[in-house]
Amino acid sequence: MKLNRRDFLSNGVVVPTAVFAGAVAPGFAAAATHDRSAEASEAQCGKFRHESSGFSRVNGYKLFHVTLGRGMPVIFMHGGLGFDHQYFRPFVDPLSRSAKVVYYDHLGHGRSDRPASFNEITLARLSADCDGLATALGFDKFVLVGHSYGGFIALDFALRFPDRLAGLVLSCTAADLASFVMRSPLGGTAAQQAALAQLFAGPAANATDAALRANWVAAVPLYYNNEMPPAGVTAAVDARTIYSAAAFNRGNEILGGYDFVGQLPSIKVPTAVHYGLGDIWRFGDNEKIAKNIPGATLKYFPHSGHWPFQEEQAAYVAYMRGFVASVETDDLRDC
Q1: What CA–CA distance (Å, rounded) separates 154 from 131?
Q2: pLDDT digit string (tens) for 28-80?
């Protein structure tokens, strides 16, 4: 029996633990050469220019955000749902040498406010929050990066607010539930497979922030290429992450019927799509998004799973620098 997230998200299926028993496309040219170890060390020491953090009131709630660097604004939407922006850092920080990098926590996540009712959280609301945050930060147009579930929100945003975008980056994501197919064989250990089953066993198995954290930390190695996270990464990210079980469960709930495939041809902004070749999610036809968005490019990171910015940091930063440079114009720079 094959597990796919589509059945869980659309039908609320409780998946038994027993279910779990059992070529590279060219990217954008690098804008410069990079020393990965030096960049990582510099990022960890907080030496990138103009870092600031704070809260902006958007649609009645406070959203937490961090900005680094100067240049074209590039807003990163984290996935999950149920996690915060921390898994991007410090890996994406070197991009701030040539752009203004913005990380933020969605409503109900991380250090942002948790709403009185999580029923307020919808794709439309999360898109409107990003629009409001960009306005609060003084951005007219910007590059939007949506990773994993953040890609679902980014697609919704691109359809609702196309005039805000200078560019769109869709990272390890899908445009419909039909594309959610897990790799087979799954790999990993029996304990990791059991923890992954718990993540998809419904809200009762992830009823508290602590339960979500326990299940995620135990299962997350499966999300890396060959189930081998870079040394120390998962523990470091976990130590900084603020979990939200209510947001995780609501995020799964609102994806019933998720399907933007028919609307992809209406997206006219420059778009880059990429995946890790060893991702746990096979995403069905990985080329579906790139084929249907006019002019979109497609890249595979050959040594990555679900986190190319962690697993192939230097290549990812170079790829992003190239894309930002390709859409940047004088009037969009923040210098």
Answers
A1: 11
A2: 333 322 334 444 444 444 455 689 999 999 999 999 999 999 999 999 999 99
pTM (2 d.p.): 0.87
The domain limits of the chain are 36-187+260-332
Q: Each residue of 162-220: pLDDT tens digit? A: 999 999 999 999 999 888 889 889 999 999 999 999 999 999 999 999 999 999 999 99
Q: Which residues contact 117 (CB under 8 A, 6 or more apart)?
A: none
Query: What sign has the CA pseudo-torsion 301, 306, 87, 272?
Result: positive
For residue 104, the number of C-alpha atoms closer than 13 Å in the C-beta half-sphere is: 32
CB 244 within 8 A of CB 108: yes
Of the candidates 200, 205, 220, the one whose C-alpha atom is nearest the C-alpha of residue 280 is 220
d(CA 298, CA 311): 18
With 0-12 / 13-18 / 19 or more C-beta atoms within 10 angstroms meaning exposed / middle / buried, residue 74 is buried
User: What's the rounded Cα separation, in Å, for the pair 320 and 324?
Assistant: 6
Q: What are phi and psi of 332, to 5 degrees?
A: -100, -5
- CATH code, residues 36-187+260-332: 3.40.50.1820
Strand partners, 169: 145, 272
